[in-house]
Write a structure and sequence with these properties.
Elements: H1 10-18, H2 22-47, E1 51-57, E2 60-66, E3 74-78, H3 89-97, E4 101-105, H4 124-143, E5 149-154, H5 156-167, E6 171-177, E7 191-197, H6 201-212, E8 223-226, E9 229-236, H7 248-262, H8 273-292, H9 307-326, H10 338-358, H11 368-388, H12 399-420, H13 425-445, H14 447-450, H15 456-478, H16 480-498
Parallel strand pairs: 3-4, 3-5, 5-6, 6-7, 7-9
Antiparallel strand pairs: 1-2, 2-4, 8-9
Length: 504
């Protein structure tokens, strides 16, 4: 592709944004505002009448959800790997509105827990046993000996909760979401509901196996009972491993299962909080473009890369970054694979910046108003995320981890912003896919050591869709420098709070 016929230049892209019809921006602004207000209405209605209070069990951060006059049974809720207590609000809030007293907490190394996970993650007597003990301490503290206590957990927590129930005699019904545990047997747990997303085939097989331990002819949707053991497996339609946490069908089944166990008759509406969270996030992203129009328009940067140069600037770091980074053994940060990821981003971004400089592709001067506006928008998004969906605010123990992640995130995102400035949607997708493929090569080279990098992929895709989109809107007005710097800081922050602290 020649420079004349290559990708659209940033100058042209800036001209295009200036030609946008004012009416189009007005429609976008109205749509975003309506989306935000409707989503907030649903999310705040889900909290209406529920008192939410924070406390600690030892050093474990916990949150209690209950109506002011609630006298229902106690329910302890636990999140999955790389999760937080906020991620379990989809279950905690309707149970609280149904009259149950609900307590959610952060596992060690997760959310706002200051103590890292420890032990051997591959051994039952290692990390698993430590998390079982932590959960037991929470149950002891909040139950004061009164039981039976119901347990609700997702993913990693399902194995923990099954073992807690096996070790104690004060545990009542269990609701396990996206479950897998070798501790499930024909007789224990004796009161078990399994909720699994329709797009989780392996976990669906496990759920079916668990109910067929009681009745070999059972299927999904059947409640089976034998010798004092009650089990049921339900499928949450159109749900995978994360969206299952906001499945209306799954949450309704959970309330009904606990009502059956405790002889209650709850009348609670299960609100579409999952869609509301998506609507709120989308509204914040959508509204940023008309807001960014308040920035003064800077002259576009006339830049273009030929097809050959574009291929090289993607392929060279794609291959070299994993080959070099995997050969360097750095274990400084108490976060799984964080050391490697920072190094990988540093090499990847530095190579791209060097090639961009060699071909005289400028990032332009730093526009401070655009930088400040973009950071403010990202902070608003982070506050909304933290309130309704997942932990986004770090403990003091994570501050230096975020600072260390900036070493790699800043050059990577500055290079990304410069490369994607003026690109088509397809071009931006290919640019970001190259980085994800590079991480995939690293996992293939050291599967055992870098397996957890696989979990980075959905985090990065979400980051590109949200912060990458807002960064592009800012770059349209002010050039890529402010966008790259701001999104680099936010990427370091997001990665620093997402992955569990771990100290072997």
């Amino acid at each position: 592709m020649s420079q004349a016929g290559g990708r659209k230049t940033a100058l042209q892209d800036g001209d295009s944004s200036r030609r946008t019809r004012p009416g189009g921006l007005s429609v976008r602004l109205i749509l975003a505002t309506v989306l935000i207000l409707l989503s907030l209405a649903v999310l705040e209605t889900a909290r209406f009448g529920v008192t939410i209070s924070r406390f600690e069990v030892g050093r474990t951060p916990a949150v209690a959800y209950a109506k002011p006059d609630a006298d229902g049974p106690l329910v302890v809720v636990a999140h999955g790997f790389a999760g937080s207590q906020q991620m379990m609000q989809g279950y905690a809030l309707p149970l609280a509105r149904a009259g149950y007293r609900v307590v959610a907490f952060d596992f060690e190394g997760h959310g706002r827990h200051p103590v890292p996970m420890s032990g051997d993650v591959s051994a039952i007597e290692g990390t698993t046993r430590l998390l079982v003990q932590q959960t037991g301490q929470v149950v002891d503290d909040v139950s004061n000996g009164a039981g039976p206590v119901a347990l609700v957990g997702h993913s990693m927590a399902t194995d923990i909760l099954v073992r807690v129930a096996t070790d104690r005699d004060d545990i009542g019904p269990l609701v396990l979401i996206s479950a897998f545990s070798n501790a499930v047997g024909p007789a224990a747990p004796d009161d078990l509901l399994l909720v699994t997303g329709a797009w989780e085939p392996r976990l669906l097989d496990f759920a079916l196996e668990a109910v067929r331990m009681v009745d070999p002819d059972a299927g999904h949707g059947d409640t089976v009972e034998s010798g004092g053991v009650s089990r049921r497996s339900v499928v949450a339609p159109f749900a995978e491993h994360v969206s299952v946490l906001h499945s209306r069908a799954g949450r309704g089944e959970a309330v009904a299962w606990l009502d059956r166990a405790y002889g209650r008759d709850s009348n609670v509406t299960i609100l579409p909080t999952g869609w509301a969270i998506l609507g709120l996030m989308a509204g914040i992203v959508l509204i940023f473009r008309p807001v960014s129009r308040l920035l003064p328009q800077r002259a576009g940067l006339a830049q273009s890369l030929t097809l050959g140069r574009t291929a090289l600037i993607l392929a060279l770091p794609l291959l070299l970054a994993p080959l070099v980074a995997v050969s360097i053994d750095i274990k400084t940060l108490p976060v799984l694979v964080a050391d490697y990821l920072a190094l990988h981003m540093l090499i990847y971004g530095a190579l791209q910046l060097a090639l961009l400089r060699y071909w005289q592709v400028p990032a332009g001067p730093l526009n401070w108003p655009a930088f400040a506006l973009l950071l403010a928008a990202c902070a608003i998004f982070g506050m909304a995320l933290d309130r309704y969906a997942a932990n986004f605010w770090p403990t003091s123990e994570r501050a230096w981890i975020i600072a260390a992640m900036m070493i790699g995130a800043l050059p990577y995102m500055i290079a990304d912003a410069t490369l994607t400035y003026g690109q088509t949607i397809l071009g931006r997708a290919m640019t970001r896919a190259a980085f994800l493929l590079s991480l995939g090569i690293a996992v293939a080279l050291d599967f055992e050591g870098l397996f957890f990098l696989i979990l980075i992929a959905p985090v990065m895709v979400l980051f590109y869709l949200v912060f990458g989109t807002m960064g592009r809107d800012a770059a349209r007005r002010a050039g890529p420098s402010a966008s790259g710097l701001a999104t680099g800081l936010v990427l370091a922050w997001a990665l620093g709070v997402s992955f569990p602290l771990f100290q072997g």
